[in-house]
Amino acid sequence: MIERSLVSWGTTEIPYEIRRSARRATVSLAIEPEGGLFVTAPAATPITKLDHVVRSKARWITQHLAQRVRAPEPAAREFVSGETCLYLGRQYRLAVVQSEQVGPIQLRAGRLHLAIPSALPKGREPAYTRAALVDWYRRRAREHLPPWLRSFAARLGVHHVAVLVADQAKRWGSCSGRTVRLNWRVMQAPKRVIEYVLAHEAVHLVHEHHGPAFWAMLGRLMPDYEVRKARLREMGAGLVW
To answer: Which of 169, 158, 235, 237 is nearest to 198 (CA)?
Structure first.
């Protein structure tokens, strides 16, 4: 059963959902764009105390909820020279040039350099550039994500995990048995956000469903996972193209 409460602050009502954990010693707040305000608290904390905490943070909460509402839709990608691309949370400008000698994208001096064929038919450049970017992100994902994921799994006592890089437009990761699939798009996010995805899937190697045991283990593995999860929800739409 989902536990909820509601706080009045002036003429504003602030509803929130409560998540309890027997292993938590403090109360934390997280704002998720799709779900509003979540309060994570020790199991025995009375709702009156949680209401007091929410009321004391009401100005911050309402400001951030308003920002979520006003957040603009991410601009459509054009895949042209001069456009910026995210990699591990940092912006890199794309430099596309026509050349007789082509190859994969190279990250040099803070730019993503791509040589495209001089004979490429007019109008095909964006599609070619997008394909080159996908290939580049997938190669980076295959290099970094498996060892990072296995490090989290080892901390849970799980070994011999297969890690695959996938193209999952609606999921950042998935787990089936001892196989974890990870979306290459997550390589655009800051490493702290990527680590949330990896920790989440590592816990699924132990707990299949999102029950209390799952969230308790994730909390022990990554105490600030709510903050990282909220950041992923905030920036997630801009990473899908």
So the answer is: 158
Mean pLDDT of the chain: 91
Sign of CA dihedral 12, 17, 23, 28: negative
Q: How far is CA 39 from CA 2, 6, 114, 203, 235, in A?
A: 12, 12, 46, 21, 21
Sorted by sequence, the CB contacts under 8 Å of residue 160 that are 6+ apart come out as 178
Residue count (the chain): 241
Domain range annotation of the chain: 3-70, 84-239
Between CA 164 and CA 180 the distance in angstroms is 6
Instruction: Report angle CA 139, 141, 144 to the nearest 5 degrees.
Output: 110
Tokens of 99: 């050349």
Alpha helices per DSSP H over 108-183: 125-155
Predicted confidence (pLDDT) at residue 91 exceeds the cutoff of 70: yes
pTM of the predicted model as reported, rounded to 2 decimal places: 0.72
CA dihedral defined by 34, 35, 36, 40, rounded to 10 degrees?
A: -140
Q: Are strands 36-42 and 12-21 parallel, antiparallel or unpaired?
A: parallel
- Asked if 62 and 9 touch (Cβ cutoff 8 Å), the reply is yes
Q: What is the mean pLDDT of residues 175-186?
A: 97
Confidence grade of residue 185 (pLDDT, cut at 50, 70, 90):
very high
CATH no. of 84-239:
3.30.2010.10
